[in-house]
Amino acid sequence: MLDHYINWYKYSLEALDYVVENIIDLGYAERIVVTGLGGSGIVGDLLASIASDYSNVVVHVYKDFYIPKAVLRKDSVVLAISYSGNTLETVSSTLKALDKGSKVCVVTSGGRLLDIAKRRSLPYVVVRGDLVPRLAMPIMFIASLKLLSRCGIEIVPMDVALSSINVLKDTENAKEIAREIIDYVSSSQIITVVATSRFQALAYRIKDEFNENSKIPVKVEIAPELFHNDIVGWENAKVRDVAILIDSDILYEDKLISFYNEYLKSIGLRTYILKLRGNIIERHLYGSLIAGIASVYLAQIRGLNPVETKSIAVYKSMVKELEKEFIVSNTSSSV
Fold first, then answer.
1. Is residue 311 assigned to a domain?
2. Are 150 and 272 part of one and the same domain?
3. Maximum distance among all alpha carbons in the chain?
């Protein structure tokens, strides 16, 4: 599994050559609504995080069996992302968006979502299909940017995206930082990840990587909101473990992170500040690379299989029994 993280740069270059099928002009769109979950859904979170730096298009992310009808306006475009193409929640929300007349684009490796895209002549990109979804994050990100760009919606200029993926070349430094993080978390029972709103997507990516690869609970706190709730929870907490704090590229946000770092240390937590570099895309990509490597290292230390996710398999088996309640060709739902 570690080799796949090390190959992220190569995979990203590969994604730049993916073909966009059924190209149409969507340049009128003022908002993108991304539907997707897990390793696919995090791509929507990343798009939303970076859009404010590079685009006037607003990006909303919904991770459910539906998308609220108030969001599906005439100027909205739905981007459905499912690595397998069979994620029930994503297939359901995509069908419901189509039933409401929404414009839909698809990024997938196959499955039912690809069948829908072909049958409905939707714009789509097919990505390589030999990975677990969380390993495919950079290729789904690049594929999503390329698809939207070819259809007239530029979240990030493709030359900026191309330049930004160069950060993924520096795997040796990423492994070194990952080892530093492991020195802090190897004996932990629960990890707290802290970021500002600007890097919320990265905080949740780190959480998800340690959840799935290392099988460990992770708590996420986002500043400045955390100073109005989470911080109080530590006053009488019985557990003092470890926190990973993500630095920012904005001075006042770094001061917030520094303040909280000192506070957490003062009440007995061990803390590690993850220092990143570059633009917001580079920071998200490189931070995700470090998290992936570190979470595999932790799995190895604990004698766990980082690929296996038994609990998710149990959930998917259960929800499969409810499929008829979600997958319908015509929906009368008012949500």
1. no
2. no
3. 59
